[in-house]
């Protein structure tokens, strides 16, 4: 049982996870060869999802049975106020063993990350080609990076950690990562953020299943789920204004225009990393859409940091 999300505001929480067949995966390191990383990728994507598995969720006197779908995913949202008087905010999930389904560990405890809905500022960030070099617009390069590198050898853009520390005020402002990568990469992304000392936060990825047969599709396809997930964050934290960070390689500029259209008073600033040469028509569409919102098109994190210091 893997837990991907366990967060919310003072009133509502979301929990999301997945059931997969157990597989042994040694912890990667900076010394791993491309072959070792390739074998690790095979193990990550070869694991079979477990559908129709039943999980008992127990939380603050509530008991609910969650059922995994065909992708092995399960999720719930509960309207439950945060505990008072310093009590632990912990949910317990227990797999109901059945024919062919045996748990490595019957029950796990999950800490709920409560973020105040009145918090003034939050950051929404893409991942590929925004914080980590991914070559998302080049299928061959992207696939090679995906299978030959690991969380400790994937290369961040220089200065990313300092930029996100600045925007988040060293972790005071929450950071939400919204990406079209698939859930198979969750542990890699989490380890990458930790290893590169980039602020952690809820990671919201794309649901459709990616396997060995269609691994090249990871991160591609329709990006409407990102609009949906950012809209959910806007609703979950109605007093929060968001700084949006992305890149020009795919559809982030157009996506963020749609977010500004939908939530005109909720975007504090936009940062777009230029992946290719300047596209004046495309950039002007975002720049001129709402002249009150600062938009920074930057070639690197140093430019972004310089802008942020004057803006914040």
TrEMBL record:
Q: Per its UniProt record, what InterPro entries does this chain match?
A: APP1_cat, HAD-like_sf, Mg2+_PAP
Could you tell me which SUPFAM superfamilies the record lists for this protein?
A: HAD-like
- Enumerate the Pfam families for this protein: APP1_cat
Q: Which residues form the Phosphatidate phosphatase APP1 catalytic domain?
A: 122-274
| PANTHER family attached to this UniProt entry | PHOSPHATIDATE PHOSPHATASE APP1
Descriptive protein name:
DUF2183 domain-containing protein
The scientific name of the source species is: Belliella calami
């Amino acid at each position: 049982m893997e837990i991907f999300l366990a967060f919310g505001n003072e009133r509502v929480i979301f929990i999301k996870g997945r059931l997969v067949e157990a597989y042994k995966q040694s912890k990667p390191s900076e010394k791993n060869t491309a072959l070792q990383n390739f074998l690790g990728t095979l193990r990550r994507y070869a694991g079979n999802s477990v559908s129709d598995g039943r999980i008992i969720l127990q939380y603050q006197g509530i008991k609910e049975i969650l059922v995994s779908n065909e992708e092995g995913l399960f999720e719930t949202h509960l309207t439950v106020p945060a505990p008072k008087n310093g009590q632990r905010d912990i949910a317990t999930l227990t797999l109901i063993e059945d024919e062919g389904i045996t748990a490595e560990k019957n029950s796990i405890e999950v800490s709920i990350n409560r973020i105040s809905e009145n918090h003034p500022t939050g950051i929404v960030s893409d991942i590929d080609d925004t914080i980590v070099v991914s070559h998302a617009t080049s299928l061959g390069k992207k696939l090679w990076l995906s299978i030959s590198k690991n969380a400790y050898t994937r290369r961040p853009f220089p200065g990313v950690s300092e930029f996100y520390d600045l925007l988040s005020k060293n972790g005071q402002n929450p950071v939400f990562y919204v990406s079209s990568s698939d859930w198979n990469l969750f542990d890699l992304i989490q380890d990458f953020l930790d290893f590169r000392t980039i602020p952690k936060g809820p990671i919201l990825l794309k649901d459709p299943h990616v396997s060995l047969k269609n691994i090249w599709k990871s991160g591609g396809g329709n990006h409407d789920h990102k609009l949906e997930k950012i809209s959910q964050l806007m609703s979950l934290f109605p007093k929060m204004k968001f700084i949006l960070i992305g890149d020009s390689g795919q559809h982030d500029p157009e996506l963020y225009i749609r977010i500004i259209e939908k939530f005109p008073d909720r975007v504090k600033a936009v940062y777009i990393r230029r992946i290719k040469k300047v596209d004046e028509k495309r950039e002007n569409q975002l720049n001129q859409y709402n002249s009150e919102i600062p938009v920074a098109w930057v070639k690197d994190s140093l430019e972004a940091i310089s802008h942020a210091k004057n803006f914040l």
